[in-house]
Amino acid sequence: MSTQAAAPTRREQILSEAARLFAERGFHGVGVDEIGAAVGISGPGLYRHFPGKEAMLAELLVGISGRLLTGGKRRAAEGEGAGLAPAEVLDSLIEGHIDFALDDRPLIILHDRELDRLRDTDRKLVRSLQRQYVELWVEVVREVYPRLAEAEARACVHAVFGLLNSTPHLGRPGALPGRAATAALLHRLALGAFSGAHGADGDVNRVS
């Protein structure tokens, strides 16, 4: 059986290039023709896939919020099914979010800059998905660090997301350590934030 990843569909190619261009030049700084040229089709040809730029932006921001939630639920369920300790499940959640933070930096920029351009229904959906993702983390964090009150745990989760999502501001990719080293550093920083809030009194069994 082949282990090669499936080639991206034309729709996925369009979304990837749209994300890159929107992040680099802003939503209003990019035309449909430019997105089409980036994937080798005419601007009007894009309308066979999307009704316009607004639909692309909505699919990008709703899509990544949905994928983060789905991935987080999968990691939590797999950890529970395998009998992992809560600290190991938290490690897995952190790893998943780091993958997003390192591999989808244009989407972080888009969320920060362009979320308010979405229609109310799409923006509310993004916020709903994000709240569910936060609460998934809060539940795991409180299992690992039981002294944290719910409000404190939620504040910590938001703070750690802010830390991990800072990757677009860490400098040019070539100026950073390698991907593995950057991921390991972010992981240590995230765990340090949680343990620091808890008090780091040594009563938690954590994965090294």
Automatic annotation (TrEMBL):
Transmembrane segments: none annotated. The lineage of its organism: Bacteria, Bacillati, Actinomycetota, Actinomycetes, Kitasatosporales. Residues 8-68 form the HTH tetR-type domain. It comes from the Bacteria. Keywords: DNA-binding. This is TetR/AcrR family transcriptional regulator. InterPro entries: Homeodomain-like_sf, HTH-type_TetR-like_transc_reg, HTH_TetR, KstR2_TetR_C, Tet_transcr_reg_TetR-rel_C_sf. Pfam families: TetR_C_24, TetR_N. Residues 31-50 bind DNA.
